[in-house]
Amino acid sequence: MAPTETPPPPTPTFLKLSYPAPRVLLIRMDRPKDLNAMSTAAQWEMDSVWKWFDLEPLLSVAIITGTGRAFSAGADLKEWNNSMSDEADPKTRMGNAPAFKPLSRRLGKKPVIAAVNGLAMGGGCEFVVNCDLVVAAEDAYFGLPEVKRGIAAIGGALPRLIRSIGLQRASEFALTGRNATAQEMFQWGIVNKVVPKEQVVDEAIRYAELIAKNSPDAIVCTRAGLRQGWETASVERAVEWTLEKEFAELQRGENMVEGLKAFAEKREPRWKASKL
User: Fold this and answer.
1) N or C: which terminal CB in the chain sees fewer CB atoms within 10 Å?
2) pLDDT of 131-163, one tens digit each?
């Protein structure tokens, strides 16, 4: 059986895609000489992959990791510097609001697990903050050093950090620009598990398999409820929104019927591709 129904978009410059388990997509950022820093072309590549992933019916969860000693050093500051020159068109400056939404601001339908194999700085750290689960190598470290470069972490991490770790810890982290270890991020609740470096991708795959064996529809609906609770001010309104949209769609699908029937018949469910 093919891992997907539709072919993935081309990824010639930055990403390598593979399928380590059923319904699981592994995305590897692959610019190791540049610490997997992201150019504008790389960001567009990622944007197309995330859109395809959400629409591909045979995939339920994705993992993102990096090649070499870095998860990602964030934005390509050399490109950013060039875009700020007097000769450059101000409309094309790298810091302008992009036409795409990076992973750090992705809403999406399906969960993404960060397998942080090394340093995660700037935009790379912002990616991690917005992922649904995070596995980190023991020697990984994280930082938002933008304040030290005269810029700001505008990729979405600042309000999300406040929701996850509180104003004072978020302020310490973002305003000082200091690095935080994997163990510290675990204590703060950003990282789910810290493992030896050579185990980081395997552990992320293990989590992905635990998720992917469940109903594809229920995965989408459950994540929507979690995200609404994280992103909206009212807990009860988040429940109402999820009931009105994703749960209503879940009840119309085949997988809810199959899951309940399989439980009653004491057998493993046979899930269909999600239509949510």
Assistant:
1) N
2) 999 999 999 999 999 999 888 888 889 999 999
- Which is it for the CA torsion 223, 225, 226, 231, positive or negative? positive
* β strands within 80-237, DSSP E: 112-116, 119-121, 133-137, 141-143, 179-181, 193-195
Instruction: Point out the catalytic residue in the list 45, 56, 146, 246.
Output: 146
- Provide φ and ψ at 206, rounded to 5°: -60, -45
Dihedral sign computed on CA atoms, order 165, 168, 170, 172: negative
* pLDDT band at 234; cut points 50, 70, 90: confident
- Is-catalytic flag, 42? no
Of the residues 42, 75, 136, 224, only one is catalytic, namely 75
**Active-site residue among 45, 56, 126, 203?**
126
Question: Model confidence over 157-198: pLDDT tens digits?
Answer: 999 999 999 999 999 999 999 999 999 999 999 999 999 999
What is the C-alpha separation between 207 and 5, in angstroms, rounded?
A: 23
Tens digit of each residue's pLDDT (9 = 90 or more) over 79-129: 655 555 556 465 555 555 456 778 999 999 999 999 999 999 999 999 999
Identify the active-site residue in 108, 118, 122, 123: 123
Q: Is 126 a catalytic residue?
A: yes
Tell me: the pLDDT tens digits for 49-66? 999 999 999 999 999 999
Verify whether residue 75 is a known catalytic residue: yes
Contacts of 13 (CB under 8 A, 6+ apart): 39, 41, 42, 45
